[in-house]
């Protein structure tokens, strides 16, 4: 097991290097520091002096990958690539273009993002799997038919509709929860109720149908017919055998949301004014703060790779036929 984990971590290093190089090329080769300065300054006719001052204040005045003006190792270290990209591998994200510490902002905004993402993830998994199992148990009946219809209807509606409708009904019309904002401690609960409900409902259609498809595929396999032939009831077959054997595709789908547990939901946090990493990323994009965007892209890549490794390890816990060597 330990050898497998080490090998997977070593496999992840080239992937992160590739993501880092691609991000660097997009931000500093395709979109040069001079272009970044012009967009940040927001002036139609920007003087060369203003551009140079902006670059100097943020460390963008150095060569990209090789500095001829330095000696020895500083030819490589005293460059934009080393200071802005290589440092990310030790999670040194530096400062934003506005002068704030990106690492501190990520730490302070991670908890609000987790406060939304974790309840949505847990409640969503329970809700989607339960509804899918009920539809499969009553398959080929009106309950299954109308359940699929509702799922398709939910899939066809934009998440913005749920957000705006929820804010109008529960906040503006009925005054049950605040329309936006965030608090500390237990006071934050009232601000999280509506975003969590909307997060679960907005994904209910697609996820419930997906789990239903997985369970129906398992229902047609040989071990199910064998269990029925032994006299097991339909509910025992479904919950004891089908659900257990469907855990691998369920875990595979769950890894997709691992980065979102930390990075937060871009749309939900922005609409509800929650100071999480999702709204932090949106604000950075709107203000064209390239340092923050680069950091969030790299952090998302790291979290996704960590999720893949954890998923592979969890396979051995739900299926003893899988052995990691």
CATH level-1 class of the largest domain: Mainly Alpha
Helical stretch count?
17
β-sheet strand percentage: under 5%
Spell out the CATH superfamily of the largest domain.
MetI-like
Specify the structural class. mainly alpha
Shape: globular
Radius of gyration: 25 Å
Order of helices and strands: HHHHHHHHHHHHHHHHH
Q: Which topology of the largest domain does CATH recognise?
A: MetI-like fold
Mean pLDDT score? 87
**CATH architecture annotation of the largest domain:** Orthogonal Bundle
Tally of strands: 0
Separation, N- and C-terminal Cα atoms: 6 Å
The unreliable regions are: none
- Number of separate structural domains: 2
Helix content: over 70%
Largest sheet: number of strands, sense, barrel closure: none
Structure keywords:
325 residues, mainly alpha, MetI-like fold
What is this structure's SSE topology?
Blueprint: H1 2-30, H2 33-41, H3 48-58, H4 74-77, H5 80-84, H6 102-137, H7 142-155, H8 159-173, H9 189-202, H10 204-219, H11 222-229, H12 234-245, H13 247-254, H14 258-263, H15 266-272, H16 277-286, H17 290-318
